[in-house]
Every structure is written in C-alpha cells, then in structure tokens.
C-alpha cells in the first residue's frame, strides 16, 4: 500500500496510507484488521464517521506489521495541493497516476498537461491490443478459446465469403452500462423499453429520441475505443442525456470490417428489465407520448394473457427540418400535403396455403405513429450497393439460413423458400 504524505487529516497529524491501490488482502485478515479499526474510529469524539481510507489508517496505526510500504510512484496523486513532483522527479518508471480530485482532469498541477495527454492517449488505444499476449509465460488452457480456434480452423479461407462466415464467431469486447443507469420497472407490469442500435454517425439522434420517449431505453453502440471517448464527452456535454438515468448505453467495440447489426440488437434486448420492449431503429422518431400510449394498450389489449404483437405505423420524410406532428390530425395533414409518405410493399403472392401465420396476432395501433428521419447513406449500405461479392455473400448466407430453418422445423417449411432456392 503506498503512503501519501498529503493525506493528513487535521486531527490526526500523521501521514495516511492511501487505500486507492491495494494488491492482496485476504478476507480473514481484512475482517480481523478492520473490525477493531471500526471500533477505534467509532470511539473518536468527531461525530462524522470517517471514510474507508481513514479506517485503514486507524488499523495500520495500531498494526503496522500488516502493511508493506510501497514507493510513492505506485500512486502518484495529482490534485491542486499535492506534492507529486517530489515523487516522480527522480523516477522514470511511474506505475499509477491517480487523479485524486473532484476536478479530475481539470486539476491545477505543474505537469498536469503531460499526464492528461498521456491518459487520454491511453484511453483511445485499440483495446484489442490488450486482450491477450502472443508471447509470455505459460498459462492455463482456455477451453473456450481452444474451441473457437478449432471452429475457425474448419472454415475455408479460400471461400469468397470467408470474412462473412468468420464474423459470426467474433467475440467483441463489450462494456455494458457505459454510463450510469437506474430504472425500476413499474409495479403494474406494463412498462416498455425502447430498444435500438447505432454507430457513431447516428449519434445526433439520441437527444431527439430522449425528448420523444420518456420511458427506459436500451441502446447498443458500435464504437471504436476512440469513438467511445468521443461519445462520453458528447453525453457529458448534453443536458438532455445527462438528465436521463433510465437510458442504458452498451458499447460493443469495433472489430472486423462489418457492422454486426443482429449482435447489437441482441445485446440491447438482453439488458431490457421491463416486461415489454419496443423494437425500433435509431432513425425512427416516435411520436410524443408513445411510451404512455403503449402502456395503456398493454392494459386495454390484455397483453399479459394473450399472444399479441403491437405494430406502430411508420411514415417517412425527406425533410431534415420537419415540424414533427403533435397529433394524428397533424400527421394526416402532412400526409395529404406530401410532407410525409408511407412505404408498405404488397405481400408476396408466392406464399400461399396454410402455415406460418399463427402463434401471434399482430395488432396495428390506430393512434400511434413514428417517422423515419432522413440521413446520409451508411458505410455498409454503400458497400452493399457497390460491391457485387458483398451482395452475393449475403444472399448465400440467407439461403443457408433458410435451409437450416427447414431442417430444424421440418420439410413443410421448404414451401416458404423461393423457387430459386428450391431449384
């Protein structure tokens, strides 16, 4: 444990040990040591209970043999009043930099600019570089890793769709609840969470969605390490986002060349803690009050005792600056004027007969709506449109998926495949 000469409470008059860097504290030793510390500090005439750090100091004062004092470069503290320069002026190998101030990176310290740049540079490193060592000491066998490598080795690297097939087995680093989240589902079991996924180029939609949807939100963000820090600064600078504690931001770190849309959807859905979820797309802006409208529909349609899927009608606009309709009447007016339009393809006539139309009843909500907002084409849609091999591989994967479904659910499922697939 490093000792800091600047941790000196006025009424102790001694140097305090810093509890910020602890290495190994056996549980039984911790209990034996801390219990008398609690008694000692509780008997102190001051009325305010001391923090955990002061309890450690009390225990160490009585039992110095418990602690091995480490050099200060294991905990170089940067704040407005520390004497940190005395620690590192003769040392070239610093171990830990501690921003020990409520101001964090904004502290006034002689060399703070150097340490701040070093810290920010490290934050934006590609975290995949730290996942494993190619060379090092022997370690225990990781069976999951072995199985993954075996699966990957079975793929044909000469397959034109190799990268697509490999993507399925990519294990992405994931930071769940990247920002503080706090939400308790309502006691009436009608609560609904909006679920969506996005990348950095759709970040501007977050504030608008939060203004339109008052309920809980679960978002999966596909970001690089550097983009994650940009998102953090963006969120911390937004009154709208910082004013919401019921938005769960789950960062899935970039790896590979594709946008893993279904992985992101799954991550967002797994961390819904309400009975119902509203599956949306980040480019859709829900009508004002849709959250409360859906909760009322849950009760009115007896969703708890029936298999129903609610459908929110979607409209589209090409206007970046849209006077968003505040009612169904305004929506219909804009629809008549051509400001809004619908996009509903007809049903495919190849699907005939009986089957695949049961289990759930789809109910279109007559007084609910959302609007797809315009945006620049994404990088992946550009690749899809311009790269023939990209389109061929996606088509191949789709056909393999359909074949797998038919094997899983029986021969009858084959009639839902296209004539091309059956040939």
Could you describe the 3D structure shown?
It is a single-pass type II membrane protein. Pfam families: Glyco_transf_49. Its main location: membrane. With about 425 residues, the chain is of the alpha/beta class. The chain is about 35% helix and about 15% strand. The protein has helices spanning about 25-40, 50-60, 85-90, 110-125, 145-155, 160-165, 205-210, 225-235, 240, 260-270, 290-300, 330-335, 380-385, 390-410, 420; strands at about 5, 15, 75, 95-100, 175, 190-200, 215-225, 245-255, 275-280, 285, 310, 315, 360-365, 370. It has a 5-stranded mixed β-sheet with strand order 5-8-7-6-9. Helix 1 (about 25-40) crosses helix 2 (about 50-60). The chain is globular, with a radius of gyration of 29 Å.
Structural descriptors:
five-stranded mixed sheet; 14 strands; disordered C terminus; 423 residues; alpha/beta
């Amino acid at each position: 444990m490093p000792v800091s000469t600047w941790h000196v409470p006025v009424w102790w008059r001694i140097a305090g040990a810093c509890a910020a860097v602890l290495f190994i504290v056996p549980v039984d030793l911790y209990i034996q040591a801390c219990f008398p510390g609690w008694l000692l500090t509780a008997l102190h005439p001051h009325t305010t209970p001391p923090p955990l750090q002061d309890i450690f100091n009390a225990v160490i004062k009585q039992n110095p043999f418990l602690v091995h004092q480490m050099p200060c470069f294991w905990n170089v503290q940067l704040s407005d009043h520390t004497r940190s320069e005395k620690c590192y002026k003769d040392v070239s190998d610093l171990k830990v930099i501690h921003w020990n101030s409520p101001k964090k990176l904004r502290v006034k310290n002689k060399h703070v600019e150097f340490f701040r740049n070093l810290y920010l540079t490290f934050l934006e490193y590609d975290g995949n570089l730290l996942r494993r060592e190619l060379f090092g000491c022997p370690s225990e066998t990781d069976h999951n890793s072995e199985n993954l490598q075996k699966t990957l080795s079975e793929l044909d690297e000469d397959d034109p769709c190799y990268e697509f097939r490999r993507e399925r087995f990519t294990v992405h680093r994931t930071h769940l609840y990247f920002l503080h989240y706090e939400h308790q589902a309502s006691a009436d079991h009608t609560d609904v969470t909006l679920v969506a996924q996005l990348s950095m180029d759709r970040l501007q939609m977050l504030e608008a969605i939060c203004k339109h949807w008052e309920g809980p939100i679960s978002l999966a963000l596909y970001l690089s390490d550097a983009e994650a820090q940009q998102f953090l600064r963006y969120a911390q600078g937004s009154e709208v986002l910082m004013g919401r504690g019921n938005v769960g931001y789950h960062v899935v770190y970039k790896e590979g060349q594709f946008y893993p849309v279904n992985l992101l959807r799954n991550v967002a859905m797994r961390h819904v803690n309400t009975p119902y979820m509203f599956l949306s797309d980040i480019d859709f802006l829900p009508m004002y009050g849709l959250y409360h409208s859906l909760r009322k529909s849950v009760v009115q349609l007896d969703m708890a005792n029936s298999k129903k899927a609610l459908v929110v009608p979607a409209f589209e606009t090409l206007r970046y600056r849209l006077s968003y309709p505040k009612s169904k009447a305004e929506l219909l007016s804009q629809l008549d004027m051509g400001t809004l339009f619908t996009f509903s393809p007809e049903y495919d006539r190849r699907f005939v007969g009986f089957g695949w139309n049961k289990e759930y009843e789809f109910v279109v909500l007559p007084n609910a709506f959302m609007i797809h907002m315009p945006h620049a084409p994404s990088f992946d849609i550009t690749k899809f449109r311009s790269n023939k091999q990209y389109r061929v591989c996606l088509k191949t994967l789709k056909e393999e998926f359909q074949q797998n479904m038919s094997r899983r659910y029986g021969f009858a499922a084959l009639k839902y495949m296209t004539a091309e697939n059956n040939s």
